[in-house]
Amino acid sequence: MKVQNLVVGCGLSGIVIANRIAKELNQExxxxxxxxxIGGTCYDYKxxxxxxxxxxxxxxxxxxxxxxxxxxSEYTEWYPFMHRVLGIIDGIEVPIPFxxxxxxxxxxxxxxxxxxxxLIEKFGFNKKIPILELRKTDDKDLNFLAEYIYEKVFLGYxxxxxxxxxxxxxxxxxxxxPVYISRDDRYFQEKYQGIPKAGYTKMFEQMLNYPNxxxxxxxxxxxxxxxxxxxxxxxxxAIEEFFEYKYGKLPYRSLNIKxxxxxxxxxxxxxVVNYPENYDFTRxxxxxxxxxxxxxxxxxxxxxxxxxxxxxxDRIYPIxxxxxxxxxxxxxxxxxxxxxxxxxxxxxxxxxxxxxRTIANAFxxxxxxx
Length: 370
Ligand SMILES: Cc1cc2nc3c(=O)[nH]c(=O)nc-3n(C[C@H](O)[C@H](O)[C@H](O)COP(=O)(O)OP(=O)(O)OC[C@H]3O[C@@H](n4cnc5c(N)ncnc54)[C@H](O)[C@@H]3O)c2cc1C
What we know:
Blueprint: E1 2-8, H1 12-24, E2 29-32, E3 44-46, E4 52-54, E5 61-63, H2 66-73, E6 78-79, E7 85-89, E8 92-96, H3 100-106, H4 109-123, E9 127-129, H5 131-134, H6 140-162, H7 171-175, E10 179-181, E11 192-196, H8 200-207, E12 213-216, H9 221-224, E13 229-235, H10 239-242, E14 252-262, E15 272-274, E16 283-286, E17 298-307, E18 317-318, H11 322-337, E19 341-343, H12 345-349, H13 355-369
Parallel strand pairs: 1-2, 1-13, 2-12, 7-15, 13-19
Antiparallel strand pairs: 3-4, 5-11, 6-11, 7-8, 9-10, 14-17, 14-18, 15-16, 16-17
Bound molecules: flavin-adenine dinucleotide (FAD).
Flavin-adenine dinucleotide binds at residues 8-14, 32-35, 40-42, 56-61, 220-221, 236-237, 316, 345-347, 353-356, 358.
């Protein structure tokens, strides 16, 4: 069989590149996925209770790019959702990222006010400070605060999530949830935020709904690679798998997500509640919040981080450290030698990319090839 464009992986990266090629270049695309559904990690479905469930954990879309927002808006309407996360610290519900409101939840008003004034004097209002930077301050009170937040918010969560302490990880990991010197309780501050009104999967169906796009599920690249020819291959699977692990495996953390359904209107006070202390799970998501769906039932997911093991679970979070990066760079070197084969997506880049970044990268690649 011969196709103009073969896209391996029908997650967000594969869908965007397939959509651009079919729509803008009017070329034919075959997009395959080894799973039995489209959407990759962003896949969602409606449960019979009428609640939309995100099978791989909660997904909230946000971007500062008008271009990306308008692009997706061709295929979906949006439910305007502002994400809020609580963390259980010493048994109290506290806004996460830890912010000025969090101070007043865990400390006496006098102490909280003193720390608030010192934080603003030292760093300024509305500033985001990575915890490892806050820990470097020499002020006695701020140092006390930094140690408190480090221990109660970051340490336990990071060890559960990564099996490493914050210092052993790339600073981008802990830096992604900084301490926020603000009264803003929202988890994200991007200009555009929302959730597709009919769900991500329905939006993806629309993005793939062109006569020149064919979708084949339950199909792995290795099943067809010897029987297919292509002008261009876009590969969004794991780069190390493509090269048959010639430089060794790249390690990932994975998630064992357990879903629970209760016949009750509500379980918790926020869409996501983090558990840095206690329990083996890191967080609980309650899905009816995301699209404000009314139901007599509620559906939760509890996330238990674990090692990635081939055949047992999915590659979720790349473990970024110099050794793994060096191994990845060897694969990248191999990739650069190939003609008309393009690696993209979170697994092609061995990086955690949010949806905004995933789309931006696919746009960039499309602009290069078109
Ligand atoms: C728990 C969790 C929560 C997240 N929450 C958010 C959020 O709130 N907001 C946000 O913006 N982003 C979020 N993200 C990030 C978001 O999921 C990613 O940006 C996005 O899924 C990346 O898409 P992708 O296509 O690169 O990868 P994937 O979604 O992983 O898609 C890759 C696809 O390729 C297929 N595949 C792989 N190898 C092969 C092969 N050899 N043959 C055939 N098919 C193959 C896989 O089955 C998969 O379907 C979250 C991620 C996780 C894990």
